[in-house]
Specification:
Layout (H helix, E strand, L loop, with lengths): L3 E12 L2 E12 L3 E5 L6 H8 L5 E8 L2 E2 L5 H6 L2 E4 L11 H6 L11 H7 L1 H5 L10 H13 L5 E5 L7 H16 L3 E6 L2 H4 L5 E6 L2 E7 L7 H8 L2
Parallel strand pairs: 3-8, 3-9, 6-7, 7-8
Antiparallel strand pairs: 1-2, 1-4, 4-5, 9-10
Length: 234
């Protein structure tokens, strides 16, 4: 892998006294979509939060564009060009769609304009004056992804973006991810559904007990389907 954008080595992380990540090792090449696959509790979300510097204790190495971030505050990591879309979405219920989109600060030049975002998410244009509480689950997920595209960050962390959504919305989210890749974004995606992941990703890291235990490129998925199903308990 050349032009590695994110390199994680021997990453250990804790929630209080609970040791969750036990030496995570993986790399994300620039311009790729990479997934972290694993069962609930494997450490996938904790890995994303650790990359963002959101845990109070972490050791090892997390290098972004060659710069070590393990000792950096989370706001500085965000300003380096990493944007995080959490599983809980974090939509502000009292704000309408446009206000939610305009809320995050621009941290780097090159973010998408509101017009460009509405072209990607025409449903949000239709709902631009609707409050967050009035949106469906699929619309909230679209808004959560769209909101981070204004910031100028080119490396996106998407945590379970398809969880609980109708199949037609899942297909739309997949198309959005593929379009973002075409636009030059790099994406780290947390997923349990490897069937969806295989439609958008270039490579997949399997996480168990806070460690990467295997890696497959996308063209290896079919020949390793039985092994993946065993890993994921499908």
């Amino acid at each position: 892998m050349t032009d590695v954008l994110l390199e994680v080595k021997d990453l250990n992380s804790w929630y209080g006294e609970s040791h969750v990540l036990h030496g995570m090792n993986f790399s994300v090449p620039a311009g790729e979509v990479v997934t972290l696959l694993g069962r609930n509790g494997a450490g996938k979300t904790t890995t994303m939060r650790s990359v963002m510097g959101m845990l109070s204790k972490r050791t090892g190495s997390v290098r972004f564009e060659g710069t070590e971030t393990i000792g950096m505050a989370s706001n500085l990591i965000a300003r380096a060009g990493i944007a995080y879309c959490p599983e809980e979405r974090g939509i502000f219920a009292s704000l309408n769609v446009r206000e939610n989109l305009e809320l995050p600060p621009v941290v780097k030049p090159g973010g998408l304009t509101l017009d460009e975002i509405y072209q990607l998410f025409p449903r949000l244009l239709e709902r631009t004056n609707s409050q967050g509480t009035k949106l469906s689950g699929g619309e909230q997920q679209m808004l959560a992804i769209a909101r981070i595209l204004r910031t100028g960050a080119r490396f996106l962390l998407l945590d379970e973006p398809t969880e609980g959504l109708a199949p037609v919305i899942v297909q739309h989210i997949g198309q959005i991810i593929r379009t973002l890749k075409q636009k030059g974004f790099t994406v780290l995606l947390v997923e349990q559904n490897f069937r969806f992941a295989s439609t958008v990703a270039d490579r997949h890291f399997v996480v168990e007990h806070g460690q990467v235990v295997d890696m497959f490129t996308n063209d290896q998925i079919e020949s390793n389907r039985a092994k993946l199903e065993e890993y994921l308990g499908v």
